[in-house]
Amino acid sequence: MSLRPIIIDGSYGEGGGQILRTSVALSAITGAPVKVINIRKKRSNPGLRNQHITAIKAVAEISRAKVEGLRIGSTEIVFYPGEPKPGKFFFDVGTAGSVTLVLQSVLPVLTLTDGQFEVKIRGGTDVPWSPPIDYFKYILKPLLHQMGFEFEVEVKNRGFYPRGGGEIIIRGEGAQLRAMQLKERGRLLEIGASIWLYNLPEHIAERMKRTLMIHAYNAFKETPKVVIDRGRSLSPGTGVVMYARFERTVLGSDRLGEKGVRAETVAQECVEKLRKEVSSEATLDIHAADQMPTFMVLAKGESSYKVREITNHARTNLWVISQFLGDVYYIKELKESLYEIRIRGK
């Protein structure tokens, strides 16, 4: 293995933490050292923040890597990966830093472990600018199971902005991933929703559920299966994740509640996001299409999927993948607002 690192410009594209997380994950996956420069250069507070440091430390511990430049505010790191190992791990993001953004970094690396793993992460489970933990449970987990990666997600506590305090546990074992050919969705099997309500009045969840039931039936001609998770946490929080489960895939949407936004609006917007995905003929929603390519490059053979929009996050991820692995993906516009993406695995 060459000790000369691949150089990744962290200001490329949307220039956020996504480049950093994808870079260290791919470094651990490929065994190639990486140097990331200009980290979050376009942000008002450039450089590493707590949740970025936790994600890098998590990948480093699992892959037995050496890291240089790992400190708050640093705009440059060098990551020298080792061999991914199974075992038990614990990572604390601090306050309400996103646990799911740490998950995005470590899950691809965990597929390469030769044995069972248990990863506990503490922080924010449902916070702005990151997928809620139920998006992982209801959308990403079944998609990855389809590729042969079996794991379970346990939510011990939910954590919200600003105090956090959430805790999740991921248990599973490494696996050789299968390529995923998502040319068609197949028949619609179920519309579902998960609502959570912590430290807030009960009527909020009931209003959200009532609105969601009406609008979901109007949109999909299906009565949605709705679960409500009620509990206590350090900070109040609410929101909803929806999914449309088909024979061959699952599409999702989410909407966090926020102060000053009515429960009815939260539910209505989440239904509308899912309606856009379902009506587009996409086989992955726009958020899964950001995250699945990192797994697809590990699969044996070529994977493919359709998506209604190629987001800046998705383009950035594909660009980072090309810096490590070369020209392994192909994008074809099928028609207005529908694209096919093919990704060559190993």
Features:
alpha+beta; 15 strands; 32% helix; 4-stranded mixed β-sheet; Dihydrodipicolinate Reductase, domain 2; 346 residues
Could you explain how this protein is built, in words?
The radius of gyration is 19 Å and the shape is globular. Among the domains are: 1-83, Translation Initiation Factor IF3; 188-279, Dihydrodipicolinate Reductase, domain 2 (2-Layer Sandwich), CATH 3.30.360.20. A hairpin with an 8-residue loop joins β7 and β8 (166-173). The model has no long low-confidence stretch (mean pLDDT 96). α1 runs parallel beside α2. The strands form four sheets. A four-stranded mixed beta sheet has the order 1-2-4-3, covered by helices on one side. With 346 residues, it is of the alpha+beta class. It is 32% helix and 29% strand. It has nine helices and 15 strands.
State which percent range the strand residues make up. Answer: 25-35%
Query: For the CA atoms, what is the radius of gyration?
Result: 19 Å
Shape: globular
Mean pLDDT: 96
Helix content: 25-40%
Name the poorly predicted regions.
none
Write the layout of secondary structure elements.
Elements: E1 6-9, H1 17-30, E2 34-37, H2 50-63, E3 66-68, E4 77-80, E5 87-92, H3 99-110, E6 116-123, H4 133-146, E7 151-157, E8 166-173, E9 188-198, H5 202-220, E10 225-231, E11 237-246, E12 250-256, H6 263-279, H7 288-291, H8 293-296, E13 302-307, H9 312-325, E14 329-335, E15 338-344
Parallel strand pairs: 1-2, 5-6, 9-10
Antiparallel strand pairs: 2-4, 3-4, 6-8, 7-8, 9-11, 11-12, 13-15, 14-15
